[in-house]
Design goal:
With 49 residues, the protein is mostly helical. The protein is built from 2 helices and no strands. It has one domain. The N and C termini lie far apart (44 Å).
Length: 49
Amino acid sequence: METIEGLQQRVDYEKGRKGYPEGFPPLPDIPAERYISPEFYQLELKYLW
């Protein structure tokens, strides 16, 4: 079982990181158009929801 101190050390380590961990896969691009395009919004409503 992990101690409170051990958990706090892990939290501090994660908070101190300045980037993704080594070997972390690249994140996909998010199409920003979906947040500003009324046409895109209507298509989402029609085909996704």
